[in-house]
Design a protein that fits this description.
about 140 residues, alpha+beta, two-stranded parallel ribbon
Length: about 140
Amino acid sequence: RSKLLHALPVIKRVRRDWPASPDYADPSLAAANTNYLSFPIEALESVLHYVPVVESLLPHIQCPVGVFFAKKDPAIAPSVPKRIEALLGRDKVTHFLYEQSHHEILQDIEAEKVAADVVNYLCAAGPPSLKCSGA
């Protein structure tokens, strides 16, 4: 979402890393953050370079896909899940929307729900040989 993304070629000439600002709905969880405190600008530029490549491959995916998205995520645009659905085909996508969490959905206020949804989705969408008793 950042408007600075277009300036990465200039920014990387003066900075190697960009400070990460962990985004949590619950400030106490943010205080316990164990994620990286910065990330290489060149890595971000590389990820952005491959977005069109990944988008071009999405229509070729034949298996079901779960999209897990936090409504209050400041880093990922709200249009991304719909874009994924449009490229994959509606019949392949199951959306999981988290109303309270921010970007760090696996560590934020709804982390347990996210983890349970991932396990349940994989058990439901996976092959019959997948052992999911007690999920």
